[in-house]
Automatic annotation (TrEMBL):
Biased composition, class Basic and acidic residues, residue ranges: 20-35
Pfam families: TPR_PATROL1
MHD2 domain segment(s): 818-928
PROSITE patterns from the UniProt entry: MHD1, MHD2
Protein's UniProt name: MHD1 domain-containing protein
Matches recorded under InterPro entries: Munc13_1, Munc13_dom-2, PATROL1_C, unc-13_homologue
Residue ranges of every copy of the MHD1 domain listed in the record: 544-687
Biased composition (Polar residues): 131-140
Region annotated Disordered, chain positions: 15-36, 121-140
Domain of life: Eukaryota
Length: 987
């Protein structure tokens, strides 16, 4: 073939137009298909990047193509086992007289044998054109080598120069295979300026080979470079210098010798340091992949970019001879060929569907190969390719209604197959946990599920926008159906269209494709319906039309979903559960809920306002509870009556919401009523640090004549009640009465509500009645907890605050015999009378019991943590016993007070510890040592550790015994504590 003919073919190939088709419909009928075939828009270079990495070297496509052709010719020459080469001019060359090349390279191309590769890939065979390069010529049949030259767009002049170069290389290195050479080095020394038409072409050719050396040995080496190795930088320095000024490549050139030594040493590296048989100069990724891709592109007819040549079997056979040089194996080949087929399909506007089918079939082989991929570069290449394919496919699959229709749904199936294969390979290849998770997660099922839902959402949105646009441009807006009514009918059409066309394809990977599609449409319409409902305040004709249409749509969709999922594992239950119902009564329900929210918000404001004004006056009424409590109960009762008067049929469904709201209001009232009243920790003093008070200290001397005056003064101060004090004992009692009243009225309110529900709605479902009867659980629980907290607050407030002057500041301070419990009992009795007269009789015992417990706790606190102002002699134990008896008698009150067994229960701890005060000091010390050793055995052998204070007093607990010793007023205790813990004898 002459150069004119070649140029004509090349221009013809490059002038193929890429026509974009767009689907246009002139009708609103969803079942009517467009007459013009629709094709997705082709990707531009920016949208569809090269997946295998950039070369980062300035080499044009034609230069890379010439390099790939040189490797191909050299590989075919190398396969002849080094037989002598003979150059024959192009005018004399024939298939039998060419230089010694591989038999497959010199073999004549077949014209009748069917292509096995095409059959395997699913490519259709085509009848050859009359001007095909392989149809024969006047002098003889065309060889595979000649076919490759034309397919790769290599001129005869360049082909002759390449063959001549290999003759010269073989003459100088007889028997040496190409893979053991650095090809650019060999070629650089075979030609001079005189071998080219002009010096410029020679310089371009030289620069190409130098750039290849840089790309293959420095930029993309087969083996990673050592940062300490200076050879790569030296090689780059020589190459960059030669790019500016052509270098002398003669055999005796010093610069050429240095270049050869550097390049050879870098190319002949190995992982283990041995001398390899293969030179690594073109087998680094992505250089090798780019060169191999160029070779594979020769499988496409230069006159028809979408057509795979019939001689693909012979072409692939000789291309595979480059594997050893480019470090390509079957896995790499399948990956690269998949990319070539797929890229050609995309770059030619997807007009040849066979290419997509072939890429899909080859990707199936890649899926099998991927399990064996272990080389990092191959793994990265695979991931890049699959990621790009998946991204391109998903742009169409996520909106497949825009790209596919009844007549091209087979393309959708191939695209689905490719996308899912890519997804599965990526997951299996990149996830070490895939084998563990594969039973739990079906990657293909999950992906198709996503495509269905996304595409249905897109189709729904387009239909909605079309209706809105049509309504805006329509002049007949009066008496027209609401948009949502029309949309409901169109959504039904979408659903049946989906089932008829797309689900047949999708069911291969998703058994309930139709069900998922209608569920997605159901959710889309439901979202619009919800927005519509939120914008209305009352029922209107338009609203009724929308609700009727929505109800019909829902029945159609649910029926389709049930029919499609009937054979699934759960019989479609999960799918139906996903389809949140939207009945006609939803509008009414929302309006009633709005009414409920308004009433609840109004009640909340009322509660907050009245609580701020409440003074908790015990004389406000004879029942001694707060007026605000009465009012909040009355408001709740009125709200219930108004609710049952509403003309709605769904009282049972909405009653729980009303009750929950009222329950929350009442709970808020209760929490505010007890807020700030305090608890045990609010009033109990901080436990003082352990000290030692010896006999004769300043605290032992107490002037008795000053005591009554001091007690009277403190009583006068603490006993004065501020009129604005809403937390005094009477006010706290009123709070308890109020909570008790609320708790009692809740039962009445719940029974009245159930009665109204039965009478007005004729509900006889006992289970429903039981559920509705638990509507005030939060308030009921808050009442009980509030009464408990208030009772405790009263108790510890009385003992440690109201009576602090006769208890904490007086009892057993200084001399025990002169600071006993009588003053405390007298004032405590007065307060108990106030409590008994104020608190409701149903909770009175609970409150007084708390006061008793607080007094016992306080008594024990005085004995064990009374601070340095208190100390006890062994003889004081009888006084303490007697005082405890007086305290217990106060609460027993000759049988009119608390039950004796209740008093005994709460005084058990105190009575168990009092014997320690009767115990001799020496025995106490011995008990303490045993207790410490039992609790701190490892550390107690050399020195007794100081036991921590737990506050859980017990006669066998080390901290309790320690505190009895600390407050024991004798020398032995002082000496023991000084010796073991260095406690001071005096403060």
């Amino acid at each position: 073939m002459d150069m004119v003919s070649y140029a004509h073919r090349d221009a013809t190939a490059q002038s193929l137009s890429r026509t974009k088709y767009h689907e246009k419909s002139t009708t609103n009928n969803l079942h009517e298909k467009p007459k013009i075939p629709f094709l997705p828009s082709s990707y531009s270079d920016d949208e569809f990047p090269y997946p295998f990495g950039e070369l980062d070297v300035d080499l044009t496509e034609s230069e890379l193509r010439e390099t790939a052709y040189e490797i191909l010719v050299g590989a075919c020459r190398s396969s002849t086992s080094g037989r002598p080469l003979k150059f024959v001019s192009s005018s004399e060359r024939s298939s039998s007289s060419m230089m010694s090349l591989s038999p497959s390279f010199q073999r004549s191309v077949t014209s009748t044998a069917a292509s096995k590769v095409k059959k395997a890939l699913g490519l259709k065979s085509r009848k050859k054109n009359s001007d095909s390069v392989v149809s024969g010529n006047k002098k003889g049949s065309t060889t595979v080598g000649e076919l490759m030259r034309v397919q790769m767009r290599v001129s005869e002049t360049t082909d002759s120069r390449v063959r001549r170069a290999f003759l010269r290389v073989a003459a100088g290195q007889l028997g040496r295979r190409l893979e053991s050479m650095v090809l650019p080095l060999e070629l650089l020394q075979q030609f001079k300026t005189s071998d080219f038409p002009n010096p410029h072409e020679y310089e371009v050719w030289q620069r190409r080979n130098l750039k290849l050396l840089e790309a293959g040995l420095v930029l993309h080496p087969y083996l990673p470079l050592d940062e300490t190795d200076t050879r790569p930088r030296q090689l780059q320095h020589i190459i960059h210098g030669a790019l500016v000024k052509p270098m002398d490549t003669g055999k005796h050139s010093e610069s050429m010798q240095v270049l050869r030594n550097l390049a050879t040493s870098l190319a002949c590296r190995s992982f283990d340091g041995s001398s390899p048989e293969i030179c690594h100069w073109a087998d680094g990724t992505p250089l090798n992949i780019r060169l191999y891709q160029i070779l594979l592109e020769a499988c496409f007819d230069v006159n028809d970019q979408t057509s795979v040549i019939e001689e693909i079997d012979e072409v692939l056979e000789i291309i595979k001879k480059t594997w050893v040089i480019l470090d390509i194996d079957q896995i790499f080949h399948n990956i690269c060929f998949s990319w070539v087929l797929f890229h050609r399909y995309v770059s030619t506007s997807q007009v040849e569907n066979d290419l997509l089918f072939a890429a899909d079939n080859l990707l199936s082989e890649v899926a099998n190969d991927a399990k064996a991929v272990k080389h990092p570069s191959c793994s990265q290449t695979l991931s890049s390719l699959l990621g790009l394919i998946l991204g391109w496919a998903e742009k169409r699959l996520l909106a497949y209604h825009d790209s596919f229709y009844r007549d091209n749904v087979d393309i959708m199936q191939s695209l689905l197959s490719m996308g899912l294969s890519a997804t599965k390979i990526l997951v299996e290849h990149n996830s070490s946990n895939y084998q563990k998770k594969k039973k739990e997660v079906d990657v293909e099922f999950s992906s198709v599920d996503t495509y269905i839902r996304a595409s249905m959402l897109s189709a729904f949105s387009q239909e909605k926008e079309r209706l809105i646009s049509s309504r805006k441009s329509s002049k007949k807006q009066q008496n027209s159906l609401p948009i949502l009514s029309i949309l409901a009918q169109n959504v039904t059409d979408l659903a049946f269209n989906e089932k008829e066309i797309y689900s047949a394809v999708l069911k291969r990977w998703h058994p309930i494709a139709t069900g998922v599609a209608v569920a997605a449409l159901h959710a889309c319409y439901g979202s619009e319906l919800k927005k519509f409902v939120s914008g209305i305040s009352e029922l209107t004709p338009d609203a009724l039309q929308v609700l009727i249409a929505a109800d019909k749509l829902e029945k159609d969709l649910v029926q389709m979903a049930v029919a499609d999922a009937v054979d699934s594992e759960d019989g479609g239950k999960s799918l139906i559960k996903e389809m949140t119902p939207y009945e006609a009564e939803a509008v009414i329900a929302n309006l009633v809920k709005s009414w409920i929210r308004t009433r609840i918000d109004r009640l909340k404001e009322w509660v907050n306002r009245n609580l701020q004004q409440e003074v908790w006056n015990p004389h406000a009424n004879k029942e001694r509870f707060a007026p605000s409590g009465v009012e909040v109960l009355r408001s709740i009762d009125e709200t219930f009556e108004a609710f049952f008067l509403l003309p709605i049929p769904m009282h049972p469904a909405l009653l729980p919401e009303l009750m929950n709201g009222l329950d929350g209001c009442l709970q808020n009232y209760i929490l505010e009523a007890i807020s700030g009243c305090g608890c045990r920790s609010t009033f109990v003093p901080t436990m003082p640090a352990l000290t030692r008070c010896s006999a004769g200290s300043k605290f032992s001397v107490f002037r008795k004549k000053e005591r009554p005056a001091m007690v009277l003064l403190k009583k006068s101060h603490n006993g004065t009640t501020n009129g604005d004090d809403s937390f005094s004992i009477p006010q706290l009692c009123v709070r308890i009465n109020t909570l008790h009243c609320i708790r009692k009225e809740l039962d009445v309110l719940e029974k009245r509500t159930i009665s109204q529900l039965r009478d007005n709605i004729r509900v006889h479902d006992d289970n429903l009645v039981n559920v509705l009867g638990k509507g005030f659980e939060l308030s009921a629980a808050a009442c009980l907890e509030g009464i408990q907290q208030l009772s405790e607050a009263i108790a510890y407030r009385v003992i440690f605050h109201e009576l602090s002057h006769v208890f904490w500041d007086y009892l057993y301070v200084g001399d025990v015999s002169s600071s006993r419990i009588e003053p405390f009992l007298q004032e405590l009795e007065e307060i108990l009378e106030i409590i008994s007269a104020t608190v409701h009789d149903r909770v009175r015992t609970r409150v007084i019991t708390k006061v008793m417990k607080a007094s016992f706790d306080g008594f024990l606190f005085v004995l064990l943590a009374g601070g340095p102002s208190r100390s006890f002699l062994l003889a004081d134990a009888a006084i303490i016993d007697e005082d405890l008896k007086f305290l217990m008698d106060l609460f027993w009150s000759d049988g009119d007070g608390l039950p004796a067994d209740l008093i005994d229960k709460f005084s058990t701890t105190l009575k168990g510890i009092l014997p320690l005060f009767h115990t001799d000091t020496a025995i106490l010390i011995e008990q303490f040592e045993h207790a410490v050793q039992d609790n701190f055995a490892p550390s107690a052998k050399s020195r007794l550790p100081l036991p921590p204070t737990s506050g859980n007093w017990s006669p066998t607990e080390p901290s309790t015994i320690m505190r009895v010793l600390c407050y024991r007023n004798d020398k032995m205790a002082t000496k023991f504590l000084k010796k073991n813990y260095n406690f001071p004898k005096k403060l």
